[in-house]
Amino acid sequence: MRPRLHALLASGGLTLALAACASNAANMTSSGPDKPWAPNGNEQGLWSAQSRPATAVPKTANGAPDFGIPTNPALAEMPPTPDIDLARTYTLPELIDIAQRNNPDTRAAWERARQAALAVGMVEATYLPLITANVIGGQQQTQTPLPLPVGTQRYFNTTSSGVSPSIALQWLVFDFGQRAAVADAAKQGAIAANVLFNGEHQKLIFDVSRTYYSYGAAVTRSRIARQALGNSIAIRAAAEDRMSRGLATTVEVAQARQAVAQAELRRVLAEGEERDAYQALIAAMGITATLPLKIATAEKRRLPDAVNLPLDSMIQLALSRRPDVAASYSAVKAGKAGIKAAEAEFLPKVFVAGAVASAQGNFNATGLPTIGQQATGMGVLVGATVPLYDAGLRAAQLKQAKSRAAAAESDFRRTQTLAVTEIVGASNTLRTALQSYKAASALVSAASITYDAALEAYRNGVGTVTAATAADSDLIDARQAQADAHAAALIAASNLAFVVGAMTSAEGGPALPPSSAPQPLRP
């Protein structure tokens, strides 16, 4: 009895000691909220056994606390560079193809779709029996002191040992459709995940198209800024020539030089915006920003004067194939299946259980021969379980399932309304962009004539440098407005195709019928 008491006391003391050490894990943090953390080299050990580290507080050269973290070279390992020919000039469909093969968002969406599909398989596995193999074995020794010694024997020793392997079967045979309802909900979740995977690709195609057209507009603005700089230099040369012949004042030359400086500033800013637009395009593709791709822009793409969009039929088409609407509808079906599963909890379940087992044991006592025994057995049970009382748990679960279904229905209606709003807004934006491009084109034509006339008049001494520089500035603004309107029209067309669920392919552009979208605006 005394050795067992000692063992119990020792185990209890060890348990208390380990529990007291749990708070030591806080020593792995910094010593205060204003002190930086620094590793002590023992982060992979048992935190509960750590004492307050004696590492010095990291400081800068000026003695201020340094909250930097240690360098970890593994964090700087980038994914392999995609197979891209840097000497080739890429078009929009080729850029979309690169993005679809390398963008991490589409990969993550694909993995989520796989997880949802595997969830269906796991639910369907519950229709089949569960068969397990089990084995239990052990040995027990006892030592009992004898009242009187028998010869040299002062204790009576016994040893018992045995092993029992078994195979057990558990099978839920009937549950009033609960598993079917759960499987239906899982299938709807898998359908939604697959739909959203395709939707992620549609979003990627739109994002690449949008940033591609924005980049094209930035390239055009840079070219216009360089042309404007050349125009300003021509005006300055004319002013300096007139001054050399005594026909211009220093004020006119100063104004011309100021115009050159302003044009140079515009060029620098425009080229900076071009670089930013390029980085936005590369980021949308999901590839490393250091790749210097050559990209063919769409600045020469012709636009129609106006479009007539059958709005009602386009809305009906969009609601029938937009990924977010389809996924929301799957959520509604999953919610209804959840109600059926919750209702089945009130009904009995029928199960079958069975086992096949064998046992082998030995018993050995001091001075007696060993006794061995072997046995086998098997059994099959059929049972039913009926829930009687659970303090309202099942009723609460049913109400929760109905609430989820109602929320899913509301979300579906909201998604439909939002889709219609987006389609109408995208249609209006496209119409406005096309009208803006038409107006900007007329403005460019008029501004070009004005600039040519003002420069020629100044060269011939019948105009002023102020009029020439003003005409140059107006021409720059008109050309940039035209470039922006051109890109806005292309982006608006892409956005319209996206919100109607038609931006489904990199090669074919928006998959709209001829009566539903302006074909010349396909990205």
Automatic annotation (TrEMBL):
Instruction: Report biased composition (Polar residues) as residue ranges.
Output: 41-53
Example of a GO cellular component annotation carried by this entry: cell outer membrane
The secretion signal range is 1-25
The principal location of this protein is membrane
**Location of the protein in the cell:** Cell outer membrane
Please give the residue ranges the record annotates as the region Disordered. Answer: 27-67
- GO MF annotation list: efflux transmembrane transporter activity
The answer on whether this UniProt entry bears the keyword Phosphoprotein reads no
User: What topology does the record note for this protein and the membrane?
Assistant: Peripheral membrane protein
Keyword Signal among record annotations: yes
Keywords tagged on the record? Cell outer membrane, Cytolysis, Hemolysis, Membrane, Signal, Transport
Q: Which GO terms describe its biological process?
A: killing of cells of another organism
Assigned protein family: Belongs to the outer membrane factor (OMF) (TC 1.B.17) family.
PANTHER family linked = OUTER MEMBRANE CATION EFFLUX PROTEIN (PTHR30203), PROTEIN CYAE (PTHR30203:SF29)
Q: Please give the function described in this protein's UniProt entry.
A: CyaE is necessary for transport of calmodulin-sensitive adenylate cyclase-hemolysin (cyclolysin).
Q: What is this protein called?
A: Protein CyaE
